[in-house]
Amino acid sequence: MSTQARKSSQGQDRSAHRYLNAQGAEVKSREEAFATPLDLSAEAVSTADKLELHNGQTTFAIEVKYNPNTYPHAVTGGQITSGICGAPWNITGGFIGEQIRLDAKRAGQGSCANTITIVGEFQNPSSYRGTYGFDGATSSFKHTTKYQ
After folding, report:
1. How many degrees, rounded to 5, is the angle at CA 104 between CA 81 and CA 47?
2. How many CA within 13 A on the CB side of residue 25?
3. Higher pLDDT residue, 133 or 18?
4. How far is CA 130 from CA 44, 53, 102, in A?
5. Comparing C-alpha atoms, which of 116, 114, 118 is closest to residue 131?
6. 3-state SS string over 13-70?
7. What CA–CA distance (Å, rounded) separates 87 from 68?
């Protein structure tokens, strides 16, 4: 194959190259393919996991939403849906990483505390060992919280 033929076939390959952006749409250039989209949807910066907090006979069902693009992962919301007086509880903040912290506010009815704070440290198999408390306390009750 001559040098001219190689150059010609390389030029054809380049012109036939397609670029796709993160949403899968075809774009004109590599720069457009890697450009940050102007309108980021909430799904792009949030994911959810289910956790179970165990404390002896009590089990709290937890769905936590967090930003997977940060570390430790910044908690953006979620709910404690059962196992605790006054459920549901809306998760208002916290983080998940080598340690966990979840802050929640009571959304349900009842004469229970108004807030709960759950803290812990990661252990294997994938779970957190720590404590939780109500209305500002963090060390009233021991727990193990595991991923579902």
Report:
1. 70
2. 7
3. 133
4. 30, 10, 12
5. 118
6. HHHHCCEECCCCCEECCHHHHHCCCCCCCHHHHCEEEEEEEEECCEEEEEEEEEECCC
7. 26
Enter the pTM of the model.
0.70
Q: Is residue 110 within 8 Å of residue 90, measured between CB atoms? A: no
Dihedral sign, Cα of residue 27, residue 17, residue 20, residue 25? positive
Residue 23 — φ and ψ, nearest 5°? -90, -5
Is residue 122 over pLDDT 70? Answer: yes
CA distance 42 to 65: 11
15-67 pLDDT tens trace: 567 877 766 778 888 787 777 665 555 556 789 999 999 998 899 999 999 99
What is the mean predicted confidence (pLDDT) over 129-133? 93
Bridge partners (DSSP) of residue 101 are 95, 119
Long-range contacts of 69-72 (CB under 8 A, 24+ apart): 69/45, 71/97, 72/96, 72/97, 72/98, 72/99
